[in-house]
Amino acid sequence: MRKTEPRIPTIREVAKLAHVGLMTVSRVINNHPSVRPSTRKKVEAAIVQLGYRQNEAARLLKGQRAKMIGLIVPDLSDAFFASCAHTVQHIARAHGYMTLVVSSERDADLEFQQAELMASRKVSGLLIVTSTRRGDDRLRELQNTGLAIVAFDRPLPGSDADCVLVENRTGAEEATQHLISHGHKRIACVGYDEETYTIHERVLGYTHHMNAAGLKPNIALGLLTLDGIREWLAEALAGKNKPTAIFSLNHRTSIYLLQALAEQKLRIPQDMALVGFDDFDLASIITPPLTTVAQSPVELARRSMGLLLERIQKTHDGIESSPAKILLPVKLMVRASCGPHEERPD
Amino acid sequence: MRKTEPRIPTIREVAKLAHVGLMTVSRVINNHPSVRPSTRKKVEAAIVQLGYRQNEAARLLKGQRAKMIGLIVPDLSDAFFASCAHTVQHIARAHGYMTLVVSSERDADLEFQQAELMASRKVSGLLIVTSTRRGDDRLRELQNTGLAIVAFDRPLPGSDADCVLVENRTGAEEATQHLISHGHKRIACVGYDEETYTIHERVLGYTHHMNAAGLKPNIALGLLTLDGIREWLAEALAGKNKPTAIFSLNHRTSIYLLQALAEQKLRIPQDMALVGFDDFDLASIITPPLTTVAQSPVELARRSMGLLLERIQKTHDGIESSPAKILLPVKLMVRASCGPHEERPD
DNA sequence: TATCCAACGTCTAACGTTATCAAGCTCGCA
DNA sequence: TGCGAGCTTGATAACGTTAGACGTTGGATA
């Protein structure tokens, strides 16, 4: 029973069946031009008849690249990145690629290790949401060996890789403006992980817009846990310039804030208005529905894959071209957490 | 610049540096016993000095299995499976395996295609959350070629693969009992996708417990969309035996129900009590916090990987052993969505 | 019909690894 | 001292594919 190995057909058997040489079969498979149509047809028939499939290992050994693309994200259990992974995979499959997904656990070293591992497996391309903030020549070296790399969500510092980013800054400005237009003047900006590019950009957008409106920015970063948020909130409420609105820098912070606000019996939006960056499944369902700045993981992944497939083609053909940059828009999802549109007394 | 190929060292160069034959190096790498310690040391030093790493492609070509494990889930963008994937990957990495994650899009044929693709890439093991309900010999054939397979979350019909399941039935019984103990008699059971094993089991648990308590089951399945839920709810409320409590069969349904109930201005738990199968991030944060039956994706993945690694070892050593079955407990997370514990009049 | 050209097909040699087999070495015992 | 026995070690031949060198064929032209 164990010895039922059904003999996977090789190119050799195809050649025998089609009465041609090995290389003819190889050329048919690789769409080489110089094969007579009649011969091609014979070979193709033999391929179908035997159910032949190329042996990747042998191709790899000959120096070809694998029909795989690698995807590195900071955290696969994050719904946003999971959604990206799903889309990437879907598109990759449609183009005959398998996807090697790994989570870098937000660790720059692990991220590079994984990238190198993928490179050593000869993936055709690499899609990466980096966790490095400092430039890293090591990835560049991989690029120089003919690996196509596209960064998305965050740019690869000091790299000339293609990248697809989101209008983080504009989104933050819109969120801030939204709160201002509801009459708020003391708007706090809360989040963690100031090292992350996206967060950094959002803070910049907030700060810029607050200053432009003549308001004083009030930024609290590094609040990683629910406890951190609780503490900050208690402190903020005790101060004399307590905020009337909060701009939350990301999904997780929004959730913690919701909990902390509920614990303090603060009503949204009456006692505290809230806008959060990142939309999430339940944002429209909770009470009150949360106004968010939505970005589309699907679109992000879609455009990134588009760029990657192009880049793989170019790299394959030995064409060098300047890196592409795509900037995707965000959308303010106005819900109830800032209340109806009205002026509010100081 | 493009020609900077830094010559990846081969086993041959290691051999030359260590002044030994090729095979000695190969034996050192594969932990063959018959290598003199002094020789081993020499070779290991050379390996470190050159930064040698095995070439997977060549190993594969020689018929070895890849240091990869495959994971097939119905939907990678589902938080539950994303979390599983994350854990699987983490453990796999710790054991030197990369993970090939794919989503089967809940399609049995695609699922098998992906499995075969992975098999042809010679993965060492396959972890699979199946979307088939009917027996499928094809996976069995893969097993017979020496591929270790472990099913989790759902059993592989007609297969003798190891599997790790969750106490779906018991969980549903506990949820039902919880509602009954709050005095509810008219308890509806709502969800979709009756074809799915887990849902089926939960319905069984609910039905069994309702019957045992002398209550009449009220089951609504096939409600895939928010609209479907809305419609069902309106109808249920219009009937004369309108339910006072709902047992939601999964995460998504719970969310839709929350929205539909809010639209109908029904208060939870006063007008309608609710228990949902599957815990989720915001369950404890929304108002009121939702009572759920929690299962742990992390534990599920952990145990499955444990089984898989064992099975890979056994398969490698040619040991056959009867399939293992693990049943994981669930936990009723009592929150506020069923109200305080009290009897309720009919 | 002979010659040349173009188009096409085949052969050979790798790619890096491991299984098999054969040979060398050391050690203990007669 | 000599000689198996057992432990190490090394040479060789695959694994399936592709690049490149090398033949072979057919037709067109003089």
TrEMBL record, chains A, B:
Record GO terms (molecular function): DNA-binding transcription factor activity; transcription cis-regulatory region binding
SMART domains: HTH_LACI
Protein name (database record): LacI family transcriptional regulator
Residue span(s) of domain HTH lacI-type: 9-63
Keywords: DNA-binding, Transcription, Transcription regulation
Entry-linked InterPro entries: HTH_LacI (IPR000843), Lambda_DNA-bd_dom_sf (IPR010982), Peripla_BP/Lac1_sug-bd_dom (IPR001761), Peripla_BP_I (IPR028082)
UniProt organism field: Granulicella mallensis
